[in-house]
Amino acid sequence: MAEWKDGIAKITLPTPFAVGDVNVYLIKGERLTLVDCGIKTKESWVEFKKQLSDLHLTPNDIEQVILTHHHVDHVGMLDFLPNDIEVFGHWLNERWIKPTDAFFEEQENFFGAQFLNYGLPQEYFPSRSMLRQTLKYSCNRSLTGQLVEGMNPPGLSEWAVIETPGHAQSQIALFREKDGVLIGGDLILSHISPNPFFEPPAPGEKERPKSQLQHNHSMKKLLSYPIQFVYTGHGKEVFQLKELVEKRLIHQHERAMKVNNWLKEEQQTVFELCKRLFPSAYKRELILTLSETVGQLDYLASIGEIISKDHQPVLYQAR
């Protein structure tokens, strides 16, 4: 049952994904603000209205939405909310929450070129219909306004925006300094390591973002704030932030060094490494497992452990 605590109410909603339920948050500010809004399914909408009624509220009482990032389990129900509710988030949300044909074409071209480099067989190459299918639980709605680092969002004068890219290029967190509360999206989760998804380059950029390196930097960045605890996008709150960040960084380094040891034995493609890292999951969760694999290689390259051969597909080997 949803209840208020220090002006914040946590609402937990079902998703059809392996990650399980997603958390969204109501904040009593100058405007009643919903942070994230769950996935676009009937089950989620019914549960959302039920938990709102526990708080003696309806969807019409919500005055604005702030998005921590663009993933479908955090934005989909925007389509069910009243049209006059304002929506704020990082500017990179826009191309995902109101996708155009040009964006699907850009994605198809990007993933097609990456898959060639990674050594994937043609049967795995994404089609535009497949990419559209990945957003079936998402929304078709534009941002009202953009949020940037250090800004106080409209209607939330006690809260400041922290940009935390990695898991998503659009990801932000909200920090309330007076009591050290962070609403962190999927940057840090108590029970699992969030996956740093690779994405097409931002508009105007040519290089794909190195999501794992960004994710590590964003986690370390949190340690410079006096954060007491974190409301997370999935699962329970995080109270021992420093210890958990250190644990996540060590775990990621160890996984990367396992990949490095394989590359000492023989040069391999991304796809070969992906199948070895995720033998039972790579077919079912191709983008997710490829993202993780590429992330480990980006990390190893950044610390000087590996080199890549300009080859089609690209081959990686230990130095």
Based on the model shown, name its key terms:
Arc Repressor Mutant, subunit A; alpha/beta; Metallo-beta-lactamase, Chain A
The major sheet is characterized as: 7 strands, mixed
Which CATH architecture of the largest domain?
4-Layer Sandwich
CATH topology of the largest domain: Metallo-beta-lactamase, Chain A
Distance between the termini: 55 Å
Oligomer: single chain
Number of strands: 13
Structure description:
This protein has 319 residues and is α/β, with parallel strands linked by helices. It folds into 2 domains: 4-98 and 135-239, Ribonuclease Z/Hydroxyacylglutathione hydrolase-like (Metallo-beta-lactamase, Chain A, 4-Layer Sandwich); 252-318, Arc Repressor Mutant, subunit A, CATH 1.10.10. It is 34% helix and 16% strand. The chain contains 9 helices and 13 strands. It has helices at residues 42-54, 72-75, 94-97, 101-118, 128-134, 211-222, 241-265, 270-277, 286-302; strands at 4-5, 8-13, 22-28, 32-35, 64-66, 86-89, 145-146, 159-163, 172-176, 181-183, 229-231, 306-309, 315-318. The strands form 3 sheets. A 7-stranded mixed sheet has the order 1-2-3-4-5-6-7, covered by helices on one side. Strand 12 and strand 13 form a beta hairpin. Helix 7 packs across helix 9 and helix 8 (270-277) crosses helix 9 (286-302). The chain is globular and about 60 Å long. The mean pLDDT is 95.
